[in-house]
Fold:
Amino acid sequence: MEILRHALLVLHLLGWAALFGGLLVQARDPEKKVNAAMRDGIGTAFVMGLGLVGVLEAGDDPVNHAKIGVKLVVGLVLLVLVMANMRKPSIPQGLWVGLLGLTILNVCVAVFW
Structure:
């Protein structure tokens, strides 16, 4: 069970890294858009996060449900925003900044809470 937990955690972190990288690669571009790295990253992070919570719940360690709830809501908002804007030729600068901020917020919740 420990190997599964670690594998899910690695995939979860790689998903967040792909989303973050997909956002940062566009930092200097005047026109931003949702790219495949962002789509695949948030999808991977969300699904692996759900799996990780399932494995943690099956174990003996207590799970901080408030932290998981916050991460779930932020991840779901990110997933919806990315998927809703996938086919658009460009996204507003404010949306791009919001996606970047929510991504950083989710990582900060994971690390500092």
